[in-house]
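Project standup — Tuesday

K.O.: blocked on the structure for the chain from last sprint. Re-posting the sequence here as requested.
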Amino acid sequence: MPDEVRRVAHGRIDHALDEVLGRSDSTREEAVHEARKDMKKLRALLRLVRGELGDPVYSSENASARDTARELAGVRDADVMLATLGDLEERYGELPGAGRRLRPALVAHRFRTSAGSLTPASKAAAESLSEARDRVADWPLETDGFEAFEEGLGRIYRHGRRDFLAAQKLPSAELIHEWRERTKDLWYHLSLLEDTWKPVVSALSDEAHELSDRLGDDHDLAVLLDWAYRHAGELDGADPVLRSFDAIVDHRRRELQVEAFAYGARLYSDKPSIFVGRLEGWWDGARHARRAEAARR
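H.V.: unblocked you, prediction finished:
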C-alpha cells in the first residue's frame, strides 16, 4: 500500500510537470487547467492518508500543493467565467439587462489577465513540483491495508455529510462551496478504491462525480454574478440593471441545487462509521478473492 500511494502521488506530480513545462499537447489554458486538477487530486490523496502522514507532514505538503495551484490561477478563473456565461446563453438565449454586456467585459478581463507571460509562474510551479516529488519518498507510510486510509476516508465523508446538512438548512454560496470541496475529495477517494468492488464502487464514484459537477456549476454561477456586481461600471449598468441578470442566475442555481440535494441525500445517507465499514468489508472481500484466485493457480 505505501508503494501504491507513492505511485499515485508521483503520477499526479509528473502529469502536472509535463503540463507546466509544455511537454504535452495542451494549449496554455488547458495546461493550466490540467495542472491545477492534478494539484487538487494530490491534495485529496494527502487527505486520504492524513492519518498515516501525521499532521506536520500533511500540513506542509497540502500547503505546497495549494500554493502551486494558486500560482496558475488567473487565466483559468477568467476562462471558467466565460464558459459559465456561455452555458447561460445557450440555455436562456440573449441575456437581459446588463447580462448581454458581460461577454465583451469578460473577454477584456481575460485579455488583461493573460497579457503577462505565464513563464515565471510556470517556472515557479515546476520548481515546487520537482521538490514535492523528491519528498514523496520520505512520506511516513507504513501501514499496508485498509487501515492506511480508514481515518482519512471517514473524515472526508463525515465532513461532507456535515456540509450537506448545513447547506440544506442554508444554501449559501459559501456553504455549498465547502460541501463541493469535500464531495470532490470523496469522488477521488472512491475512484482510487474502485477495485474493491468495481461495479458498486464505480457507481458510487459516478454519483459523487455528478454531485460535484452540479455543485461546481453552482459555484461558478455565484462567482460570475459576484464579478458582474463588482464590475458593474464596465457593464454600464447599476445594480437595478443587473438584477434581471441576477434573476436568471438565481433560477439556474435553484435548479442545480435541487438536483444536488437529491444526489446528496443518497450519497450521504449513511453514518460515517457505516459507510467506512461497508467499504472495508468490500476491501477485505476483494483481498480474499485475490488470494483464493492465486491459490487456484
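K.O.: great, moving the ticket to review. Residues 147-297 form one domain. The chain has a mean pLDDT of 89.
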